[in-house]
Design goal:
The chain is of the alpha/beta class. Helices cover 31% and strands 26% of the residues. The strands form two sheets. It has a seven-stranded mixed sheet with strand order 4-3-2-5-6-10-9, covered by helices on one side. α1 packs across α5. The longest helix is centred in the first third of the chain and has 19 residues. 37% of the residues are buried.
Length: 246
């Protein structure tokens, strides 16, 4: 089903099953496409990755004092682009198969991956609460229902440190004109059932206003991700990012 405008929950279990299937069917080629979902044009996932890194990474202000928490980290795509001298990296994803792929590729002593829900990040990283000064929330909020998005955003301040400030990057696929939900939807391109919620930019701002902004964060920058329109191959949705700082 394609549901426009109204709020409809999707199945977290089906989302997890989808990504477990993606991980288990990985054939050793184009690792980024496992999570970037460009099966008809795998080269587009590589082009998008390069564009995303070029656009967003300067905004992360990574240096030797950076302690990074990468929520829904997938195969560790973002870690690949990070400088070797960052202080700490932790990645969490609820897909066991993706974490296995991430661990098989990881060569950094200061980086660790964990299997679990991002909603349990405070429990998974209980010994490191308040340690992080960079939190990356890249391309996964569209797989969470509204109540879970709010629950997650309320937990973020406990994970991020006050000392030296903190920065959060949220990158999402948004509905261009209105909210669009795919539920019990069969994707011909992916040859699989696929569920996701493409909220509008204003809906995300309302989430931030009732959670992160009340905790002292400010949206310091927001914009469409791709400067090249050829990188966005959907008419109803597009890639968008927010930078929040405290």
């Amino acid at each position: 089903m394609r549901i426009k405008g109204s709020v409809e929950d999707i199945s977290t279990d089906k989302v997890k099953e989808f990504y477990e299937s993606r991980a288990s069917s990985y054939n050793g080629e184009n690792i980024y496409n496992v999570t970037m979902l460009q099966d008809k044009n795998p080269e587009l996932s590589e082009e998008r990755n390069r564009a995303e890194i070029a656009k967003l990474f300067p905004k992360f202000k990574l240096d030797e004092n950076s302690c990074v928490l990468d929520l829904a980290c997938g195969v560790g795509r973002l870690l690949d682009a990070m400088p070797e001298n960052i202080k700490l990296y932790r990645g969490i994803d609820f897909t066991e198969g993706l974490i296995k792929l991430a661990n098989s590729r990881n060569t950094r002593a200061n980086a660790k991956f964990f299997t679990g829900s991002v909603l349990d990040a405070d429990k998974i990283l209980a010994d490191e609460l308040g340690s992080f000064n960079r939190i990356l929330m890249i391309a996964f909020l569209m797989y969470m229902n509204d109540n879970d998005v709010l629950s997650l955003l309320k937990k973020i301040p406990a994970l991020i440190t006050y000392r030296g400030g903190g920065l959060i990057c949220v990158k999402v696929s948004i509905g261009v004109n209105e909210r669009l939900t795919l539920k019990d939807f069969y994707s011909e391109e992916l040859k699989s059932d696929y569920e996701s919620i493409y909220r509008t930019r204003d809906e995300y701002m309302k989430f931030f206003e009732s959670t992160l902004i009340t905790e002292g964060f400010t949206v310091t920058e927001e914009n469409y991700l791709y400067d090249d329109n050829n990188l966005n191959n959907r008419k109803e949705t597009t890639q968008y990012y927010f930078i929040l700082e405290r």
